[in-house]
Amino acid sequence: MGWVSAGGYEVALDDGKVVCRNAAGRRLKSVPPKIADDPAVVGLRQLAEWLERHERQCLADVERWMVRSLPVPFAVLARVWPDPAWQAALRDLVVTGADGTVAGFLRDADPERGLGLVDLDGDTVRITPDLVRLPHPVLLDDLEELREFAVELGVEQRAQQLFREVWQRPAALDAEATSVEDYAGGAFKELRFLHGRATQLGYRVRGGNAVCSVLEAGRGVEARVWVGDYDGYEETETGPLVFTDQAGRVLKLGLVGPVAWSEGMRMAAALYAGRDIEDEERAA
Fold it and tell me: Could you say which of 28, 128, 144, 184 would form a disulfide bridge with 240 (CB–CB 3.0 to 4.6 Å)?
């Protein structure tokens, strides 16, 4: 971005920050206070804030597509790819075919040439699918091998896909059970601490539950962990993990799909990890 005049100085955006240089062209350590309210400086700061929000929203949208395993029309990807924020969020994600097999790592989306991928042989290939599939990692076969190959390629995914924590449903799962107790009982000195942790992790709190919504095989499922709904300064602890359908009915665990299971366990584990360890150590 070019330099803009501002009260005898020139300002510009550099890596998301407003920078300034004097009339001699020497770059200053900071923007002088006397031009802090100059329209050019204010406008650049507002632009920087908008760009930051835009980057966060692009990343959140891409992660939502992945978590929900939503196929994305190729035309949409090709349209947004020139935007650096969208490109950064999408670059190097694993793309699969309709049969679930890995096609490669996403490197380009051109309306004329199709998707540019690095395949599992390390070669650059082009495909032209109508729908682009960015699967949840729990659905990827040979996930560990893919992670190792990604490290060899120097892949850096901004959207958490390959290196997202995943939980596989245990083979000995009681299909008739309706709750998971693994991460229940995590004590917090004050309810507001647990609510704050849920919000910080990106989960909504509704009706005393931290919730995570997943769309799997066209069916909406919500993972819920009780976090408390009373005085914010009272003690609380994490409850069991349960899954509900779109009508709010609790599901038997045997009816919970792999993506909903993984995301629910991920939420429960992350909430539990913030518990008061000191009290546990004293009790031991």
Answer: 184
